[in-house]
Amino acid sequence: METNEPIISRHNRHCLQCRSIAHNETLTTVEMTLQEKQITFTQNIARLIEFAYDSGFALTFGEVYRTVEQQKIYVETGRSKTMNSRHIQRLAVDFNIFVVDDDNGSVVMLFAPGIDNAQYERELAVARPLGDFWESLSPDNVWGADWNRNDLNDEKFRDPYHFEMKP
Ligand SMILES: [Zn+2]
Questions:
Q1: What's the gap in Å between 86 CA and the centre of ligand 1?
Q2: For the residues of 43-104, what is the DSSP string, one character each?
């Protein structure tokens, strides 16, 4: 049934202040302000962390907020390709990702520096549930191992540690 009722309302915006997830989700992402996106993003990162630990992963934090000055250094040194990084907008987090061995409790880091393509493919399959879960939380959520959200390993710039929300 069609309705002309606006999806967003003053009521919803007020309720965002009390951190209600339910009300927050009634906003369409197109209509959200940057601050509303930042708040939703952070809430969703909490969910991602819970999901990861429930699914046999462990995480440690890499970078979250990044200054423009820091980003300039990364672009100049080739570590990043863009001055448009979501990290500058508080809409991206990098995690170090580990798999926990149930038998002995040891942790193995995924995507360690220097792994070859075949190993990357194997580890990508292991980590994909994290990316899938992240994408399921919002149509604007993107995983750095699948920038175009097509579930294929066809990225020119691989960043499997990176989870972002488009502004
Ligand atoms: Zn990142």
A1: 8
A2: HHHHHHHHHHHHTTEEEEE------HHHHHHHHHTTS-S-S--TTTTT-EEEEEEEEE-TTT
- Distance between Cα 6 and ligand 1 center (Å): 34
Distance CA 127, CA 161 (A): 10
Distance from C-alpha of 59 to C-alpha of 57, rounded to nearest angstrom: 7
CA of 144 to the centre of ligand 1 (A): 8
- Distance in Å, CA 62 to ligand 1 centroid: 8
Residue 108: its H or E element: strand 107-109
Distance 79 CA to ligand 1 centre (A): 10
| Domain regions of the chain by residue span | 1-31, 36-62+91-165
Helix (H, G, I), strand (E, B) or coil at 7: coil
Q: Does the predicted TM-score (pTM) go above 0.90?
A: no
Two tokens, residue 149:
């959200």
51-62 per-position pLDDT tens digit: 999 999 999 999
Q: 91 CA distance to ligand 1 centroid (A)?
A: 9
